[in-house]
Design goal:
Length: 289
């Protein structure tokens, strides 16, 4: 995760903002929060998350001793796709974030939420960052996608169009759905790490579910404070990677002139998988509808 405008280095952090995970310092209560969340989510996700996610969760054995020790996770993750997890104090500046991704390092918060805030938190913690993001990094295609995104992020910054590229991250890495032979499944980290959004994203009649469309996504704003009003369903992880490996130069040129699409609107070119009622969003914000 990254945030604009943060410039002060936390004491003890290196210039790449990494810190020691200090795994030995987690308390039994903190380990217990991980175990509670892990058990709840892994049971819910068995027939909801996509196979690459579930396989990654198994392969990395993220359960055993409560909060995972990055050194142990990295031995296996590195062997599978060359990725590793590094600890950071919290949100880091975009340029630092992208540089880590481009070099196959995923920056993760090391703190864990409190037992009385299992379902809501303002900043991504280690459960979101590691349980949510890291299993997908064991998939070779997704692993390449994330590294390419890091390189693309630096370029989007130089062009002043990072807000448009960030939408791609949001609607894929954080809130992406995947078409599979068994039906629509989840791969987005923001969904798999949330009990309520895991159910909402797949089952609720409110949101639109649309076929993945790169430029369309980059014209669609998103909300960070509530469930999504639209999800995009990728035909495969390979298709996701392929769509993004091309040169975005011409796309950025077109986006610079194109209007944003209101969050719950449909475009004539949309491939509608589920037409949402938007009932949830309307009930939450009557004035805004
Ligand atoms: N191909 C994109 C570019 O030329 C970079 C990118 C790759 C963006 C993967 C997102 C995901 O800028
Ligand atoms: Fe995240």
């Amino acid at each position: 995760m990254s945030a604009d405008g943060q410039t002060r280095l936390t004491p003890g952090a290196g210039t790449d903002w990494t810190i020691d995970q200090a795994w030995a310092r987690y308390t039994p209560a903190e380990h217990q929060v991980w175990v509670t969340l892990y058990e709840r989510q892994s049971a819910l996700l068995t027939d909801r998350a996509c196979d690459p996610f579930l396989r990654g969760l198994e392969a990395l054995d993220l359960h055993r001793a409560g909060i995972p020790d990055f050194a142990r996770v990295n031995a296996e993750l590195n062997r599978l796709t060359g990725w590793s997890v590094v600890a950071v104090p919290g949100l880091v500046p975009d340029v630092v974030f992208f540089d880590h991704l481009a070099n196959r390092r995923f920056p993760a918060g090391r703190f864990i939420r409190k037992a009385n805030e299992l379902d809501y938190l303002e900043e991504p913690d280690i459960f979101h960052d590691v349980f949510g993001h890291v299993p997908m990094l064991t998939d070779p295609e997704f692993a390449d996608y994330m590294a390419a995104y890091g390189r693309g992020g630096l370029r989007a910054m130089q062009r002043g169009q990072l807000h448009q590229l960030a939408r791609l991250y949001w609607y894929t890495v954080e809130f992406g759905l995947l078409q599979t032979p068994a039906g629509v499944r989840i791969y987005g980290a923001g969904i798999v790490s949330s009990r309520t959004e895991t159910i909402f994203a797949l089952d609720d009649p409110s949101p639109n579910r649309l076929g993945f469309d790169l430029e369309r996504i980059m014209r669609t704003p998103y909300r960070i404070d509530d469930f999504q009003q639209v999800y995009f369903v990728a035909p495969s992880l390979g298709a996701l990677l392929e769509a993004t490996l091309r040169d975005f130069g011409p796309i950025y040129d077109r986006l610079a002139r194109a209007a944003d699409i209101p969050i719950a609107a449909l475009e004539p070119t949309d491939r509608v998988i589920t037409l949402g009622s938007q009932a949830y969003a309307r009930a939450r914000a009557p004035a805004a509808q």
